[in-house]
Design goal:
Largest sheet: 6 strands, mixed
Number of helices: 10
Structural class: alpha/beta
Radius of gyration: 18 Å
CATH superfamily of the domain at 5-84 and 161-246: P-loop containing nucleotide triphosphate hydrolases
CATH class of the domain at 5-84 and 161-246: Alpha Beta
Pfam family, one: ABC_tran
Shape: globular
Helix content: 25-40%
Number of strands: 10
Strand content: 25-35%
Protein name: ABC transporter ATP-binding protein
Keywords: Amino-acid transport, ATP-binding, Cell membrane, Membrane, Nucleotide-binding, Transport
InterPro entries: AAA+_ATPase (IPR003593), ABC_transporter-like_ATP-bd (IPR003439), ABC_transporter-like_CS (IPR017871), BCAA_Transport_ATP-bd_LivF (IPR052156), P-loop_NTPase (IPR027417)
GO molecular function, one term: ATP binding
Distance between the termini: 35 Å
Order of helices and strands: EEEHEEHEHHHHEHEHEEHH
């Protein structure tokens, strides 16, 4: 079966720096795939290369078997987004002076006014993230960190997406808020939305991941099932330098 997303030998340079050294990655449709690795391993660069924000200098990025990125075949970032791919960056990209509602409206291509937003889609998002209904007219800049993260993900999902790329959503959040986020993403998984998730919280990774790829020094050095990695403490130590059991 053709994977929804595939990277074949992707190389990425940023200025004089060679960041990705031939990344091979497969993201099956309908699964949540974790991208793990130490700081500086190239995880964020991988997401940005998929979106065309940094253009690969070698290799290919394919969506349903069709090339969308790589030398000589690179789509522009807006074109990639129009392939029904959404990206939630680490900094969330929230417009703080706008309300929660206005942030969502900006991401809805077919709506010009709030009353044109899809009611069924909004109801589904409120089910995932109940705080968004409560703070609907509240300035987004005054939300808590966890609420901003939920808004960022909801904004990416205001329209149906084939693929969602999320970069470290739990970073800086209190444990109770992380658990709320885990529960929301578990509900998202039940909708069979395909997700590629970069995450450093290994308790969260173990609960959410179907597949996993581990990066080191700009390469994928391990790929498999998250359950197998979670059960193999020696492999965790070798790949990540830590034990998942220590991150309950």
């Amino acid at each position: 079966m053709t994977p929804l997303l595939e990277l074949r030998g992707v190389q990425t340079h940023i200025g004089a720096y060679h960041i990705l050294h031939g990344v091979d990655l497969v993201v099956p449709e309908g699964e949540l795939t974790l991208l793990l690795g130490r700081n500086g391993a190239g995880k964020t660069t991988t997401l940005r290369s998929i979106m065309g924000l940094w253009q690969p200098s070698g290799g290919q990025v394919l969506l349903s078997g069709q090339p969308i990125g790589g030398p000589g075949l690179q789509l522009a970032t807006p074109e990639i987004a129009r392939q029904s791919i959404a990206y939630v960056p680490e900094n969330m990209g929230i417009f703080g002076a706008l309300s929660v509602a206005e942030n969502l409206l900006l991401a809805a291509r077919d709506a010009r006014r709030l009353d044109q937003l899809d009611d069924a889609r909004l109801a589904w998002l409120f089910g995932l993230f109940p705080a968004l209904r409560k703070f609907w007219h509240y300035p987004a800049g005054k939300l808590s960190g966890g609420q901003k993260q939920m808004l960022a993900i909801a904004r990416a999902l205001i329209e149906p997406r084939r693929l969602l790329l999320i970069d470290e959503p739990s970073k800086g959040l209190a444990p109770a808020i992380v658990q709320n986020l885990i529960e929301s993403l578990q509900e998202l998984k039940r909708s069979r939305t395909t997700v590629l998730l970069v995450e450093q919280n290994f308790h969260m990774a173990r609960q959410l991941g179907d597949g996993v790829a581990v990066m080191d020094d700009g390469r994928v050095v391990h790929a498999g099932r998250m359950a197998d990695l979670a059960a193999d403490e020696a492999l965790q130590q070798r790949l990540l330098g830590l034990s998942l059991a220590a991150h309950q």
